[in-house]
Amino acid sequence: MDLYYIIYCSIPGKAFCKADVKTLLAAARGNNEKFGITGMLIYLPDLFIQMIEGPKAEILRLYRNIEQDNRHYRVVLLKEGPVHHRRFPDWSMGVDDHEVPLSDPRQSFLVSDDKVFSLFNLMDMPETLHN
């Protein structure tokens, strides 16, 4: 499979309450599973940071949709490229569970967890991810 990833950040177009984030995640997870997309979302009150990974055509399509989505303001592409394996294979969209209680705790993490640090480490790696 031709795997690809994008890491971007954006400013929420409006203030999100926990219910808004939960609704967003429910829709994203359903669509992501359908198109073979996995990833991680870090939601802070004034910032989204997200990594999406999956088939290249689907990742590029999703990113174009995000750029046009009024829930995002100032979408900035931080890094993109081919990847040889998924970093978040079990997450249709993982999220920090401090902010949003989830029915499936396997889809959650703490901002201090190793998975978050791995996301930021990816941003410092060379363009093509081989590991």
UniProtKB/TrEMBL annotation:
Residues 3-94 form the BLUF domain. This is BLUF domain-containing protein. It comes from the Bacteria. InterPro entries: Acylphosphatase-like_dom_sf, BLUF_domain. It comes from Mucilaginibacter jinjuensis. Coiled coil: none annotated.
